[in-house]
Amino acid sequence: MSKNNIPVVSESDTAKAAEAAKYNGVKNFVYVGPSLPGGRLKSNAVLIGTYAEIMEYHKEAVSRYPGVERLFVPVSSLADAKAKLQNGGNALSKYYQDVAAKIRTKGD
Questions:
Q1: What angle do CA 94, 95, 99 make, to 5 degrees?
Q2: How much is the pTM?
Q3: Total number of domains constituting the chain
Q4: Which DSSP helix (H) or strand (E) runs through 48?
Q5: Rounded distance between C-alpha atoms, residue 18 and residue 51, angstroms
Q6: Which of 52, 59, 72, 75 is buried deepest, with most CB atoms within 10 A?
Q7: Could you tell me if residue 18 is inside a domain?
Q8: Which domain holds residue 34?
Q9: Among the listed ranges 57-61, 92-96, 102-106, which one has the minimum average pLDDT value?
Q10: Does residue 101 belong to any structural domain of this protein?
């Protein structure tokens, strides 16, 4: 809360809400990011549930590896996501590279 009792909404909260709203009604996702250490989340894992449910279940991975939350795509968009990752030069490939770099630097 701010000093005027007006709730303060961070930019990340707004972005997360927009991401969740974008996937309203979608219940099948694929994780297109790199496999996380310790078997936390495997590349190409198919996940069933709403975006919010998946984020809640994988909240540790999301907090530990920023960008992971952007690497869950609806099954219906899998071919497009794979093409974007292969071609590079877009936001999805940037998130993939950021998560991969974080994995290398964490060393766990």
A1: 120
A2: 0.78
A3: 1
A4: strand 46-48
A5: 11
A6: 72
A7: no
A8: 26-106
A9: 102-106
A10: yes
